[in-house]
Model the fold of this input.
Amino acid sequence: MISVVILGAGNVATHLFKAFEKAENIVVNQWYNRSLKTIKPYKNKIEIIDDLALLNDADVYIIAVSDDAIAELSEQLPFENKLVVHTSGGVGVYDIDKKHKRGVFYPLQTFSKDAEMDFKSVPICIETIDKKDYHILKALAISIGSPTKKVNSDQRRVLHLAAVFVNNFTNQLYRIGHEITESEGAEFDLLKPLILETAKKVQELSPYMAQTGPAKRHDKKTIKKHLKILKNEQHKDIYKLLTKSIQNTHGTSTGSATNFEKNTHNGRKKL
Amino acid sequence: MISVVILGAGNVATHLFKAFEKAENIVVNQWYNRSLKTIKPYKNKIEIIDDLALLNDADVYIIAVSDDAIAELSEQLPFENKLVVHTSGGVGVYDIDKKHKRGVFYPLQTFSKDAEMDFKSVPICIETIDKKDYHILKALAISIGSPTKKVNSDQRRVLHLAAVFVNNFTNQLYRIGHEITESEGAEFDLLKPLILETAKKVQELSPYMAQTGPAKRHDKKTIKKHLKILKNEQHKDIYKLLTKSIQNTHGTSTGSATNFEKNTHNGRKKL
Ligand SMILES: NC(=O)c1ccc[n+]([C@@H]2O[C@H](COP(=O)([O-])OP(=O)(O)OC[C@H]3O[C@@H](n4cnc5c(N)ncnc54)[C@H](OP(=O)(O)O)[C@@H]3O)[C@@H](O)[C@H]2O)c1
Ligand SMILES: NC(=O)c1ccc[n+]([C@@H]2O[C@H](COP(=O)([O-])OP(=O)(O)OC[C@H]3O[C@@H](n4cnc5c(N)ncnc54)[C@H](OP(=O)(O)O)[C@@H]3O)[C@@H](O)[C@H]2O)c1
Done:
């Protein structure tokens, strides 16, 4: 049995609580938030507290609060030498107060409070300062069905950065697709199956192998037509920059792939 | 029964042939390609030809060849006044020779030859010059299980352009995610569930509502950190431009959404 205390009551904390509750070998001892309001609905299932002085003993303390509040909250914890982890991709493990055993339990996924989340599709990136603390975090992740990966700080940092590209920036491209289609009274809904298929394709194939379209084909006529249709200057800039980026990746028609491409363009190669 | 002749043997032609073959009320009379080699494997199922002079009568002739070859091929067809359509998002309906009844049967999806494709997730955008020709194309699409949409030329043009954003450009963002993670020996595979979830989210929620992250939050500290990690100048430019684009869409922290945002940010509104 692994005993856990959750601190914070946002998206991540709430999803973790629900997953831990279902897991057989995890017990959540207490749930802390600075204000009780958000966690009141759970008061029959779990001891809820808003006073750090009431914290009891547990194997792991999970700080799932806003990035900026992690350091301070860890400092305020009224004990030492216990395992305290945060759940952030962008905050250092050393930002946790040094009186604790320290680690990171970073779920590489996008959470919304109301949407259900199956932790099978939430890879947990684990980092600990002391090797010995790794195994309990791994066991915790496995108990909720998550794939796990041991990462160092540099790796976690680039994963968090890459997540911005494939999540936030991709979502903004969807948004631009929305604006463009609606501008002519066409339906964004028509693009939804394509959006899904594009994401599914790279589950099997590398993005390098999956690429198609006018940029890759150096189809100047179509590119020119598209730039003429775009009225928003920023959309034009994005079109040009991403077209150039695709052409850099795939080389000219005469072929000039960089080493990275040569090494990674194999379709189903496990990376 | 609708009788069809397919011209061309690439990705689209092949997927259409397979779907038509399964449909109850469609019969494919002949399959033409300039070279027989690609369609040889189908010769027991269907009459294959490489000579336009051998073409027989049919209700619809579907030209699914490279964009640049559509006009010429339509001109070479040895008959007139029959319904001839192409399958391109980027080619005008008037590019088909005017001796024919003309239309477009544009599948808004990304096809690869070896991957299976369920036409339920292939919206067919239909355009015809003569209203009377619309219904047979709609019946054709319905027979293979596709959702259909009547579009005009301007709408088809912007759908094709938007498809470049949500398919080719999005895929390039995946590619950049791949490069960034591998540069630190982190695994791109860890990002795959996030990629899928990002695409799934906008099936229900508008991209406006689905947005999160440092750009939207105007989290200057994280943005600065990320720009410092990025070594590739082009990746930096893409990061900056898409961050600015997100901030334009979502306004400053004091809030300044444009009319488009006000009208379209409702979560589940059917667009
Ligand atoms: N959301 C995601 O998709 C996601 C994914 C991976 C990792 N993460 C990481 O997980 C952590 C939590 O993110 P989230 O999205 O769950 O956040 P969130 O939904 O915005 O919730 C933030 C939580 O932090 C608490 N909080 C904020 N400032 C505080 C302070 N000064 N002192 C004490 N508590 C404070 C809030 O308390 P109140 O309820 O009282 O306001 C709330 O419970 C962050 O480190 C984030 O980087 C998030
Ligand atoms: N692929 C997609 O995801 C997709 C999606 C929606 C719409 N479309 C549209 O569908 C059409 C076909 O695309 P595709 O991807 O199926 O193409 P593709 O796989 O590249 O195949 C092209 C086909 O066109 C033939 N062809 C090329 N030049 C020709 C010429 N000068 N004369 C006669 N035939 C010629 C080729 O014949 P050989 O076999 O002899 O080379 C081949 O059968 C295009 O208009 C495209 O814009 C494609």
Q: What stands out?
A: Residues 2-151 of chain A form a domain with the Rossmann fold fold (CATH 3.40.50.720). DSSP finds ten helices and eight strands in chain A. Confidence is low (pLDDT under 50) at residues 266-271 of chain A. Chain A has two domains: 2-151, 156-267.
